[in-house]
Amino acid sequence: MRLWTVLLIAVVILVAGAAPALAWARVVVGIGPLWFPPYPYPYPYVYPPAPVVIERSAPPAYVESEPPPPQQYWYYCEDPKGYYPYVSQCPRGWMQVVPQAPPTR
Length: 105
Hints:
Layout: H1 2-17, E1 29-31, E2 34-36, E3 74-78, E4 81-83, E5 95-97
Antiparallel strand pairs: 1-2, 3-4, 3-5
């Protein structure tokens, strides 16, 4: 009986020494009233939290531009035919006309 106990203890020591290689195995050995608890699994590796990265964006860029110049109109009279200021009075009312560039030759 003593030889079996020594062999059993040697096997348990060998298995416990191989614990990292056999971390997936769970061994319970018992002889009569004597029980050897299973060796514990290795602790799970706890990863540290990821670092917090704050990216600051550039402030919005505002480009000031001058407003377009107000639309310039010419005023045309149908009776008598002509443009202001060449015709000073228009009894029927003036028509707003968008100016056009003279034709190029």
